[in-house]
Amino acid sequence: NIVNTIDMFRKAQQEEYAIPAFNIHNLETFQVVVDTAAELNSPVILASTPGTISYSGGDYLVSIGNAAAKRYEIPIALHLDHFESFEEIKKYIEFGFKSVMIDASHHPFEENVKIVKEVVDYAHEYGVSVEAELGRLGGVEDDLVVDEKDAKFTNPEQAGKFVELTGIDSLAVAIGTAHGLYKGEPKIDFDRLDEIRSMVSIPLVLHGASDIPDTMVKRTIELGICKVNIATDLKIPFSNAVKQYFTENPDANDPRKYMTPGKEAMKKVVEEKILMCGSNGKA
Ligand code: 13P
Ligand code: ZN
Ligand code: NA
Q1: Which one of 27, 141, 191, 253 is most buried, by most CB atoms within 10 A?
Q2: Do residues 112 and 105 make contact, with C-beta atoms less than 8 angstroms apart?
Q3: Is 194 known to be catalytic?
Q4: Which residues line the annotated binding site for Zn(2+)?
């Protein structure tokens, strides 16, 4: 069955690689991620935003996840990504999700702590691991839109306090990445990450990892990033390949035909990202 992220993170921290977390949206993208992770013998996290859950159905996703876990030997975690509602989190824990992110990063520190702690206390009763964010990423992730002027870097000292006060299992940090594509070159504050690392011993999470050069992501992994979130870099090649298929075959109407080039294009990127994270062969 699908698992929480505790064991996969422990091993990743010890051996200094990261677990890739891929945002999926439907059966096809789910298949590409688990099939490719299994081929490369990589542990993997499949992430669903609130919008994806309402689109695909949390119960369907858990069933697919458990089917994949039965089919393959690799550790597979299904993760709620950027959930803001405790009630929703409770509901999907009941459905079988074993890993959740409570995103209260838009609230002031004290309020963020209070909301997160409540989720942690609840989730841990059910063996569910919890991620939370301190600081705030800019950019667009499914239905989450944060203006650049509202983005805020993680304060290292606060990060230490935040982890202590909440009891979370992993911490999402804001160090210059943004959700989606960058206007110019992404500027990552590696020194800040290093400082956060010195304050925090739990696994650190890099959101917004699409559209960042591999060398930069690898540097963040060396500095303590343990989970790398990737969404946009999968969505673009998938949809481009489907568009191209329809351009070449304007009368196509068989989903088994027109979805396949999308899956193939996405598979290449999933492979690259697993290699970037260094999680291949680590299942
Ligand atoms: P990207 O779309 O930039 O890859 O961000 C993904 C993410 O952080 C999901 O939570
Ligand atoms: Zn994110
Ligand atoms: Na990004």
Answers
A1: 141
A2: yes
A3: no
A4: 82, 103, 133, 179, 207
185, 213 Cβ separation under 8 angstroms: no
Contact 181, 195 (CB under 8 A): no
pLDDT, tens only, 138-194: 999 989 999 988 999 999 999 999 999 999 999 999 999 999 999 888 999 999 999
Q: Which atom of ligand 1 is closest in space to residue 101's alpha carbon? A: 10
Closest residue by CA, ligand 1 atom 5: 208
Asked whether the ipTM of the predicted complex exceeds the cut of 0.85, the reply is yes
Query: Can you tell me which atom of ligand 1 is nearest the CA of 23?
Result: 9
Q: Indicate the top mutation candidate among 141, 143, 144, 236 to test ligand 1's pocket, ranked by most ligand atoms within 8 A of CB.
A: 141
Q: 6 alpha carbon to ligand 3 midpoint, in Å?
A: 25
pTM here is 0.98
